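Exercise 7.
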Amino acid sequence: KWRAEAELKFAKFPDRLYGIGSESSADYGNYTQSQLSSKFTLQRKIGAWFIGPTIQAGRFKSLKVEPATYQNPALWPAFDKASFIGIGFNLLQDRRDHPFDTRSGHYIHMSFIQNIKISEAFSKYSEFMIDSRVYIPILAKISWAGSALFHIKSKGTPYHTLPRFGDQSGGSRIMRGYYNERFRDQVLFCIQNELRIKLSSRWILNAFFELGKVASSFSNLNANGLRTTYGLSVGYYIDKASRIALNVEIGFSHEG
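Solution. The predicted structure, written as tokens, is:
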């Protein structure tokens, strides 16, 4: 049994400019981010696992940069522009009862990618990621979802591809309550907890609590500077058969 997954992303938009590190200032600059990236994974089922290669490539550019007074983007790795191409492998075990509206089961995904310096325009760095999730039914219409994400990249990783709070590859989002990409560094760890309540055949209510941190190295990944968020989300099944929901979320952190 084979499984394939492809991701293609193009974006160009104005955004806030934050620094690097767990203690980066809440004061921000402004810039326009331009990116084009792709990833392709092919897996074959061996026992209880899907195993296979991953290929990725992309480029980033920073345009119309207006840094905050304390910021010096020239010191950030490959901030102005960066290109990457990498190859690696991944392992996946997916035993969720449903891909969109999961109530029971578990999900484990591990990957390693080596990005290659094929010319001076490309960055050389390695990356390793573990994403583990578990779903436990409590009552007929109530369940609990928990996840742990660990992501580490080596020195030389471009600014735009550093592990960060916010949107992740594949469409998930962590540390809701912080502005997207508020914190970034070479190492990221995040734990998410979510209580899911089915209110009716169309409506669902979720309460979440998350904690996470970025760090410059694995040895600096400790409880100091740990960030927390909490909030609520309300979902409406736009299609009951597929259980695809449209969600509205509100999250809170120490920054608002």
